[in-house]
Each structure stands twice: as structure tokens, then as C-alpha cells.
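=== RUN LOG ===
request id: a7f3
mode: sequence -> structure
chains: 1
length: 595
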Amino acid sequence: MTITKEAFVDLQEKYTKVMKLLEEDSKLDPETEPFLSKYSARQILIGMKANIENLIRNQSTDGQDNVKITAMLGVIYLYLGMVAIDTEEISTGERHLEKCKETIEKHQEKPEMILLTLNMYNQFGILWSQREPEKSKVYLEKAEQLYLKYKEGCETPVDISDLFQVNIETYDTEIALKNLEKIHTLTLYYLAQIYGAMKEALKSSIYCHITLQRQLQMSDYDPIDWALNAATLSQFFMEKNGFKQARHHLAASSYILGEYEKELNTIMERNEAFDAKMETFKHRSADVARCWAKYGLLLLAKSKERLLNHTEDIDINCSMSSDLSKLEITPDSTISSEDLKHLNFEGIDVAMYESQVTDQFILTLEDARKLFLNAQQWASKAHEYYTLDSLASDFIEIVLDQTQLYLNLLFFEDNPENQAKLHKRRVNLLENILDKVNSQYYLQYCRQVWFELARTYADILDIKADKLRETNSRPTPQALSKMNSLVEKSILQYNNFIDSFKDKVTGKLPDKLPEDVEKPFLQAYFHIAALYGRYVTLDKQVQLRNTEASLEYYKFVSEYCEKHVKAKDLVSMEHGICKEMVTLLPIKIIKLKVS
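=== RESULT ===
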């Protein structure tokens, strides 16, 4: 018995309705009934399943119609599985997907089946991604291999929607080929997530890059999403010292945003929709600017670290490279050197952005300044959107990055006076935060600022002290007063940090600090103890008070570590000094009292 045209027409109409419910209507479902459209689609799919099964029972031929009708049944099971998973009926969804697999497994590589099969394996990958990543990977790798094998055959696939067309002559091969590539891109995207979940971070990054490259080639991407994903990937590469690849991905991100801005500027009608697009563009452009600033900060920091670890013959003894393609691959690695050589985008010219900043480790002050200024410019661009009034947390984080930029630049600066000036700029940035934010609402950030300010004042104090030691002349009262002022300011900020942990009602510190703040908390006490010993005064009574205060702070660290043994490991060096000072300072106090 041949399938009638009317039967196909009925199925085509129902399929069209199902797709409208799933792709359009479901986005408009009320919050009180979030799955309304999907439940409606499920009912239609169940009816279609019964109709197709009836057609299969009554069909006597094994020809093209049989393959087509079997594929149609597989599609029904696929969508029933997807709807069940979307509506949080996971076990039901798994059963439908298994039924889909059972229905089509003899014909998986046929043109009518290939898109359905790849979709099915992708859905299995999604299904198992949270529960068993290894199982998810197996399904996704099957999809990857099946796609590659099918491409070798050069057969034109049949699109899923065309299976429900009455006339085979109406098949849209261009759409089918495009959807084949889109499905494979999704496979690669899902594999990137799975490799990430399985701690194969480098392999995950390679698949992320390939996904982005394919989206570019197919012109199938949202510019904002693409730019953000490329910028995010750059952060991973730079953390792996792949500054060449990180710069390239950031440049590509900026390029795509630049092209999108041109597109926005051609829009004549300035309405709410345009305003929303422009707001999103400004927001995400600021995010990419922050990534550029991070790039400069991290390249400076890694350059500093590299120089500290190789003080002599760095070119001979240091194998550290800023290019991932030069990474040595271990024999047991799941990636190859060839994979790392193709982490660049084809089809876009990003030279303009790449030429603005180096991708090489820094060796000289001149190069450090260039990198610093570039990063500062990007931080300023980010601050155009992230202001203190509108997005204070982000504003503070950018400022903290800027202070770290100054700190890393300091390493390359040999002139003490210039070092002090850089420290003062850090002070200005940090004090500006404290002047303008409420410490109650932004306590975590203020703690960072207090601690950082205290250290900065102490660093300036060190520079001033070194300068005094190098001069043969007697220090002026103004110079000594300046040093005492720096001691006082540093102690004040450390105490602000310590006081922030006190109970608001009792004013007392907890017996045990949370582990994540224990180390800086004890270091603050240790530094205050040392700072009290750095006051310059000839007044014996003032010296006595300062020494007694110093002893109390040293005692606190020593007693805290004896009471909470694990804390010793956090501040082992400081604890050793504290124990020694707790023994020595009482002797000094006695001498001051009797003198």
C-alpha cells in the first residue's frame, strides 16, 4: 500500500504547527505556565507518532518511502525526547531518545537520516553532560566522527523539515547543507563544554576556537555573543602564557564589535529596540575593554615573574614562551602540536588591533610603560560604562586592576623617586574608592582597599627610609615627620581592615576567623607590630608606648597560632618572628622604663 498524498499533507501541517509552538510560541509562555506551548506540541507529536506507526504497519514496500517514513518516526521520538528534557522529565526524555536511536540505527548514514542522527547524538550529549560527562563525550564524539565520515561521501543530506514535504522535488538542498554544518558546530561547542567539565581545559579551548571559526565562516553568529566568547577565551590563553593567542582573540573580539557598531550606526529609526541594542553594545564593549586591561596586567605580571625566576642569562635559561604553539606536548596528551598552530581566525583582518600592543614578555622599562599605558587606556574605556554611580562593584574591580598595573610597572622602575610617585598614584586611586563608597555595603572591596593602602604606605616608607640611609647628612624634622606620618597611615589602614571583622554589637573579634581571611588578618597584625617599631622619636615615653603596642600585636599573632594550629602554616615566617619578638621586646620595655 502506497502512502497517500493526504497523509503527508496532514503530517506536514502538524509538523509546521509543532515547530511554531517550540520555536516561537514557547518564548511567549506566561511565567505561571512556562511549558504551555511545549505541552501542546507534545500532544500533537503523540498524535503524529500514532499516525506514522499506522502508516508503517500498512506499508508493503521497502523503498524510498519506507526510509523516509522511518526517519519521520525518528524525528517524532527526537522531539518528544527534547520536549521531555526541556520540561524536566529527564527519564522520559531518555526513553524517547533511546527509542529514536532504536528506530533509525540501521539507516543512520542515509541522507534522510544524517541530520536526525547527528541531532540525536547531540541531545544524548546534553542529557548526560551534567550526570556523566564521560558518557556525554562518547555520544558527542560519535556525532563528530559520523559527520566527518558522511562528508567524505559527498552525498547531499535531506533536511529534517523536508522529510515532511509531500514532494521530493521541493527539497531545499542549500538549507540542508547549511543545517548539517550548524549541527556539527553545535557538536563541537558541546564537546568544548564537556572537555572543560572533564578538566581538559586546553582541549576545550581548542574546540571553543574551532566553534568560533566555523561561526565566522558560516556568518552564523550574534556579534555580541561571538565577541564575548572570543574575549573570554583570550583570558584562558593568557593564563596559560599564550599571549600571542590571547591578543589575537581580543583583537578579533574588538574587530567584530567594531563591525557591529558600523551596522548600528546605519539604523535610521531610533526607537526602544535601537536603544536596547546600543545599551548592550556599550555594556559588552566595556567588558571586552576590561579583558584588554587584564591582558596588559597579566603580561606585566608574568614578565615580572619570569625575570625574578631567571635573573641571569634569561634568553639561554628560560624556556617560557608567550606563544602556545611552542608548548611542549607530552606523549599522553589528547591534543597535538598541530592543534595549537591553528588558533587564529581566517577571514577577518585584525592587524590594526594587534599592532597596538605587544605579545612578547617585557624586558625593559620603556616596553613596560607602553604596555602599561595601553592597559590604562582600556581600563579608562571600561570606566566610561562602569561608573561608581551605576555599577559600583565593577568600577571598584577595575580600579583595583589599575592599582595592580602600577604595582607591576614599579618592578621595572629603578628610580626611587619615580617609584614613590607611582605608589602615590596607587594611593590616590584607592583613597578615591574609600571616599566615595559605603563600607557597609561594599565591605569585601573595602577590606581589599584598606589592606592594599596599608601596604602601599609601608612601601613608600621603605623608599623614604632607604633614601635617608643613603645620605650622610642629618635628616630634617620634616623628613622624620613624613616618615612617622606614613607609619601612622599604614597602621590606620591595617586597623580599619582588622576592625571590619569585629562584631557590630560587642565590638569584639571572633575567636576564630574564617579560613579565607585568616592569613591577611594575621599578616595585618604582624605588620602593625613591625610598624610600631618604625616610629622615629627621641621621647622615651613615646618609645615605651610604641614598644608596648608592638608587643601586644606580636603576642596576638603568636597566641592565635598556638590556639589554632593550622594557622601556623599560613603565616609560618611571621609566626617565627612573632615568637622571637615576644621574648625580646619585654627586655627592651624594661630598659626603657628604667632609663
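=== NOTES ===
The mean pLDDT is 92.
Residues 242 and 323 are 5 Å apart (CA to CA).
=== END ===
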